[in-house]
Amino acid sequence: MSVSPSYKAFVLEQLSAAGTVTARSMFGGVGLYCQGLFFALIDDDTLYLKVDDATRPEFERLGSQPFRPFGDASPGMQYYGLPADVLEDRAAVRPWVELALGAARRKASGKRRRPKA
Question: Cα separation of 62 and 44, whole Å?
Fold first, then answer.
């Protein structure tokens, strides 16, 4: 569970067409944020984008697999890998990032806010 500095820099450069993307270290990986939304993560030099029921089929058609932080036998999370050939083409990356941002927006809008005490 590590991320090389060169891979992190490459991913941030490739995603820059979608807007300002910031990175934060988390649990040995890196969380990626855009427009205040947590929409992607990097682990073991692989980029994973946020999915939901609306976007998961698109990622599955691409042949993507879910992020499994505890090994192949563990349940997958709501993040699917973006194939390297797609990541290498900055123009091809943007629609996938938009799908991930849409999933992140839907998740954020569904969160219940706790009343202030």
Answer: 20
As to burial, measured by CB atoms within 10 angstroms (0-12 exposed, 13-18 middle, 19+ buried), residue 45 is: middle
Which tokens hold the place of 9? Answer: 């820099």
pTM value? 0.87
Side chain identity at 18, as an amino acid letter? A
DSSP string, the chain: ----HHHHHHHHHHHGGGS-EEEEEETTEEEEEETTEEEEEEETTEEEEE--TTTHHHHHHTT--B--TT-TTSPP-SEEEPPHHHHT-HHHHHHHHHHHHHHHHHHHHHSPPPPP-
For the chain (length 117 residues), average pLDDT per consecutive 10?
A: 87 89 89 92 94 94 86 77 92 93 91 54
